[in-house]
Amino acid sequence: MIVVPQRGWIALISAFVLAVIHQYLFYGHDFGISYPVFVILFYLYMYTYAGDRLRQGSWFSRLVMVIILLLSCTYGLFGNEFFRVLNGLFIPCLIFLHLAYMLSRRRLDWNQPALIIDALDHLIPQTFRHFITPFAMLKNKASQRMQEGQRTIFRKIMLGVLTALPLLFIIIALLTSADRMFNELLGTMPRWIMNLSPGEGTFRLVWVVIMGFILFGYLWGFVKPFIYTPPVWQAPPGTDSATPPQGMNSTEQHSINASMPHPAALPVQTANPVRIDPIILGTVLVLINIVYVLFVFLQFSYLFGAPQGNLPDGSTYAEYARSGFAELVLVTALNFVIMLCGLLYAGPAGKGLQRLNNGLLYVLVLCSGVMLYSAFTRLLLYEQAYGYTTIRFLVHAFMIFLGVLLIVAGLRIHFRRLPLARCYIILALVAYVLVNYAGMDRQIASRNMERYEQTGQLDMDYLIGLSADAVPSLLKFSREHEVPGLGAGLHERWAYLFTEDRGWQPINLSDYLAIRALRQDNHH
């Protein structure tokens, strides 16, 4: 029996040790001798840390203990499937009733039906009520050793950790989906410790955490049970103060109203702008950047050598390029949002904390740039394997635009007076004009023709479906390389330019150049 001021901490640590043993005994294994071993360890845990709650032993409690041990040993002695299933239900019920009889504060007789209610109360409500007890213990322990300023900083750091957890979950999921090597790297980390696969290690960890909280909560429900008190009757609340009581005449009501200040005389409440505490922001950035730096380090080890053939083992260009492109772009966009929040909504901070957050934002910008370049490289490889299309061209343009925005955001970290919103509006307008004047279909046709010279592959139907901008270059290419069907398809596709009387209004330079190219092609 352990009854010391540190009993809570020792019991909590022991609960997680027992949870580790539990998963070691039962994960991936059928019940056997492990069952009675765990039952004995469980009783030792309960009697050791809740020994001061034990009632005087009786012949009944000893009998039940012997029955529980004998039934537990059947898993190591016999193989009857019917009794294995039945004992799997009966033994836990018997254990919970026995512990409620031995440890419950109500000291019920073993033949009272209320003992079942007591057992269920300790199994579910009392256990779950103490799930937060470890956090309260941690808070109290920290409060004893920290001054008020330190407690405030600690609370903010913990709030930052809680804020970063869902972001980390999304980011890690996207990055592991985006890159197989990064997924394998994260998968090998548990194996360095436990020689486990990623899925198995994660499941075991979740198992231990949940079981640890359950074991501690169940124990602490006996050590410090919640005591139910009967409800106290309270008189119904009075009438609203804004409503005059019955019997008040108009003169009395007028005098009350006159004594109240006029709404115009009341001070005007101005809404404070939303600000992110710099400690919370720094904590979020630290946790996110740890994942990003690990990912970027892996990228430098093999990613940028992909165009020279340094691909992950067993990966083709197409598989490598197709995997993770969308996830990387999405992560980069998410980083951009996080960075904007840090730049625009960060609260005031001291010089040291401000420099730290600025450095973390620079790391975020650099990692985002690497991810953007990784996605850009993957798209290039994908285009080499499958050709160039309108959507892929626009995605290229968007990634370049996002890269420029990241550069501007990086400048904004140093030049705090840089008008970010204005710069972005101007850049968006300029980028849109440039995309319009880039000759997208000509670029797509040119890229596909270069790909044909390298690989001999050409998506003729798609090229014929391009706009008139691509017709002159495609016809020239068809003649020079004698591509069968390409010229004929273009003539058929654009024959209406010669037969349809559209008037002068819809004529444009592309149509004119296409008509001229088609006529010249007829003469060859």
* Distance separating the two termini: 103 Å
Q: Uncertain spans, ≥5 residues at pLDDT below 50? A: 190-194, 231-235, 239-248, 258-271
* Helix/sheet category: mainly alpha
Mean pLDDT: 77
Keywords:
524 residues, mainly alpha, 23 helices, elongated
Brief rundown of the structure:
It is built from 23 helices and no strands. By secondary structure, it is an all-alpha fold.
Task: Walk me through this protein's architecture.
The chain is mostly helical and 524 residues long. It is built from 23 helices and no strands. Helix 8 crosses helix 9, helix 8 (148-178) packs antiparallel against helix 14 (325-344) and helix 15 packs antiparallel against helix 16. The longest helix has 36 residues, at 351-386. The protein is elongated. The chain starts with 6 loop residues before the first helix and ends with a helix. Mean pLDDT is 77; it is low at 190-194, 231-235, 239-248 and 258-271.
Set out the fold topology.
Elements: H1 7-26, H2 34-49, H3 59-77, H4 81-103, H5 114-123, H6 125-129, H7 133-145, H8 148-178, H9 180-194, H10 198-223, H11 250-259, H12 278-302, H13 317-322, H14 325-344, H15 351-386, H16 390-414, H17 420-437, H18 440-455, H19 460-464, H20 471-481, H21 486-493, H22 496-499, H23 509-523
